[in-house]
Design a protein that fits this description.
Layout lengths: L1 E4 L4 E4 L2 H6 L18 H10 L12 E7 L2 E6 L4 E4 L2 E3 L6 H11 L10 E12 L14 E5 L2 E9 L7 E10 L16 H14 L4 H9 L2 E9 L13 E3 L2 H4 L8 H21 L2 H5 L2 H27 L8 H15 L2 H10 L4
Parallel strand pairs: 1-8, 6-12
Antiparallel strand pairs: 1-2, 3-4, 4-5, 7-10, 7-11, 8-9, 9-10
Helix pairs in contact: 4-5, 7-9
């Protein structure tokens, strides 16, 4: 990971391979470092292909839940209903299951549903599916650039293909100065060409180098999103104990540590482990229920990551112009953390499994 100001001044340089190789939890028994960059659609395809046919059913929009002592009934758009013993709400930022969990506690005098909180930061993403848009020899590196009120990241991610092919990606992060306290409407109906044109213009105005602009110009898949968070300290388990939250539904966080999907995977592993222990009748399962045990184990690490990622986002999008206090603080923050090895340890902490 190489971080530089738009003029080329180096702020930090993290040797990821060496860090991972020195962390026992991130090395396979044969000595292979277990840290990868992969496109999200490729990861989804790998996971889905490992499941029995028919496990994943698309086109069913959840409307509401009804929970009782015997289980949970899911009510879908169009009137269909199905009943289950346990519902795991991995349904993202606008989670219906989170609404149900919050409502179940509100009925007993607890807090009600809390909508996701807009951070005032937006991200434009672009992907060059065939790769080849970045400078030769940079495929194994992430390049970070800091410009006027803009942070840009370029990287190459695995596509899941047997030949090791990669796609190139650019992410451009900026503060939504005009939003105030109100979240703007999402622009999911933008055409890819509109987002790409806006992104290219933003990079040029911020003085970001031509190698980043070139990647943005070649992107075929482009979209823009606001950064939202869910309070990780809110309940994850329904009052009746038949619904539980996982991933963004429980703790949506800013993307500046790249931990959203990673922590969701760890949530899933931890929850499965706790359920298996309960089925086996282990001591921990008898002392505390598996769902509450899962929430207790996972809440602290994801809350810490949320706070760290939020701080990074504020630093990375500092504006005010060259030579101003905000940019001086930003540059000093990253330069000092790089020299002292703090940035490297933050990376390892995020990569290390917490289950």
């Amino acid at each position: 990971i190489l971080s530089r100001k738009s003029g080329g001044f180096e702020l930090l340089d993290i040797d990821v391979e060496s860090l991972v190789s020195a962390e026992p939890a991130l090395v396979a028994p044969d000595g292979t470092p277990q840290a990868f960059s992969i496109m999200r659609d490729a990861l989804q395809r790998i996971l889905a292909d490992s499941l029995p046919v028919g496990t994943v059913r698309l086109g069913q929009r959840l409307e509401s839940l009804r929970e009782d002592d015997a289980g949970v009934e899911l009510l879908f758009e169009g009137g269909a209903a199905e009943r289950f013993d346990l519902v795991v709400g991995a349904d993202g930022l606008s989670s219906r299951v989170r609404e149900h969990v919050a409502a179940s506690h509100a009925a007993e005098g607890g807090g009600g549903a809390t909508p996701p909180e807009y951070s005032g930061i937006r991200v434009q993403f672009g992907v060059v599916p065939a790769g080849g848009a970045r400078p030769a020899g940079s495929e194994g590196e992430f390049h970070q650039w800091f410009g006027e009120g803009v942070y840009a990241l370029t990287g190459s991610y695995g596509t899941g293909a047997a030949d090791g092919a990669t796609s190139d990606m650019v992410a451009v992060v900026f503060a939504d100065r005009a939003a105030g306290s109100a979240a703007p409407p999402e622009n999911s109906n933008w055409e890819a060409s509109d987002v790409r044109e806006d992104c290219v213009g933003r990079l040029r105005r911020a003085g970001i180098p031509a190698e980043v602009v070139s990647v943005a110009e070649q992107c075929e898949r482009c979209f823009e999103l606001g950064v939202y968070e869910h309070d990780a300290t809110a309940p994850w388990v329904s009052r009746g104990g038949r619904a539980v939250l996982l991933g963004d539904a429980a703790h949506a966080m800013a993307p500046f540590l790249g931990q959203g999907a990673n922590q969701a995977i760890q949530d899933g592993y931890c929850l499965a482990d706790r359920l298996a222990a309960a089925r086996a009748g282990g001591l921990a399962a008898r002392v505390m229920g598996p769902l509450q045990s899962y929430a207790l184990l996972r809440r602290a690490p994801v809350t810490a990551l949320q706070l760290e990622s939020r701080l990074l986002g504020a630093m990375e999008t500092a504006g005010g112009g060259a030579g101003t206090l905000p940019q001086f603080v930003r540059d000093a923050f990253f330069l000092a953390n790089g020299k002292l090895g703090v940035a490297a340890q933050v990376f390892v902490k995020g990569a290390r499994p917490w289950v």
